[in-house]
Design goal:
Strand content of chain A: 5-15%
Helix content of chain A: 55-70%
Shape of chain A: globular
Strand order of the largest sheet of chain A: 1-2
CATH superfamily of the largest domain in chain A: Winged helix-like DNA-binding domain superfamily/Winged helix DNA-binding domain
Number of strands of chain A: 2
Number of domains of chain A: 2
Structural class of chain A: mainly alpha
Oligomer: homotetramer
DNA sequence: GTGGTCTAGACCACT
DNA sequence: GTGGTCTAGACCACA
């Protein structure tokens, strides 16, 4: 499914969150399809089940998955979620942070703008938009 | 010079790094000018000198400052840092991921574009650019 | 009769209890009228008969229904349930606690009053009252 | 500080959340004062430190406390929090649930209204309002 | 078999 | 000493 980077400064459960989120967001996992069980995924990743569960809990809190007791964990449909300002702010903050990092690296203002405009256009092709 | 947010979940030494980077990148501290000493800065910020020392070490490793034994710590010229295409690609990838997440959350294409334009402009004000 | 929310974090047998209670309290099911059998209801709801059985047991324990061996399960008359002051005090205390939390969150007095008025009216429509 | 009810159907970490929240909301713990450490509280309550930490994490998420790494956990000032619609909805939902329970117990509509109005007035005296 | 909770430890970074 | 993370188990209710 994906691999963990044990040397990363991100904790394991954060990596699990990011990886699953990416799989969901880019459409690699279909809506309402079942995720691997906590136990199975923990075995595959060779980590403790509690760690995986912590990730699942957070993913549910953020509205990416839902759990059905005794059945498993499933991917949310996009349409079912109302646009959540908190999430928008959170992600916008992450982008700002990354843009600052671009400046730190030494990218000029114009280049940053080009990068952002490029992303706005390309990501639309793959990620789609509301209308 | 700047203020720390003790409540932030970023550790103090990371905040020190980020703040000094910010000051350097936006030009508030000129190239080759001297930074406050570890002892002075630790007093101003009311933190342990070890914490400041750790931040300076990391800033030096990242090529933002250099130390002259017995003299102090100084800011590197921007040109001395070569623009690292690999880093740019990595960060650009992260931003793309975040933008996909925005689409998934339900943000429309136009809104995403507005957000990106807003960041491009605001981050320039505070984060500065190469030219 | 009613619908289950498999995604709810309330267990199914609790949902069955709540829904039947609701139907009884608002008068949708008359006193002494017969409830669907465990088997029938479990088919309609597409759940395990044991789950429905468990709900009926609990509803009987709480005094909402009674069973006649070989005949079926029936709804108790409202008057047969005595109003329990202790329970009222307990639940009232919980509501007071919630209201304090609203104030702490920063809701103004007027808004709290509006919220309470709204609940008093809406819950009557669906939840019903004694007379 | 408070006591746990091991026979309650609420899990331990939920009881810890509710108890601490109540202490904060009714003003028993002053703003910016330090809560017992995770380890200490876990000893007092005779539960596992992880259980207490789980409660603290959720309390922080809901905006009642904040943590300072290496220092401890502290109570948020009310003024620092912007009114959070999500929290209002959550608490309003809890009140609705309790009101339904009142109807179930057999309280008449008029009595429920009286109870709610009484709470609105009394809780204002102790809990205070925004203006 | 599923997720949810909990225990009794451990190690880490930070203050 | 503080919170944050993680492990390797265990038990529970539920389906």
């Amino acid at each position: 499914m994906f691999q963990l980077d044990l040397r990363s400064h991100l904790s394991i459960y954060e990596q699990v969150i990011d990886n699953i989120k990416e799989l969901i967001v880019c459409g690699a996992i279909e809506a309402d399809s079942k995720l691997p069980s906590v136990r199975d995924l923990s075995k595959v990743l060779a980590v403790n089940p509690n760690t995986v569960q912590k990730s699942f809990k957070e993913l549910e809190r953020q509205g990416f998955i839902y759990t059905v007791a005794g059945k498993g964990t499933f991917v949310c449909k996009r349409d079912e979620k109302e646009v959540d300002q908190e999430s928008i702010d959170r992600v916008t903050g992450l982008i700002e942070q990354n843009v600052r990092e671009l400046y730190f690296i030494g990218v000029s203002r114009n280049e940053v703008e080009e990068i952002l405009m490029g992303i706005a256009k390309n990501s639309f092709k793959t990620g789609g938009g509301k209308k």
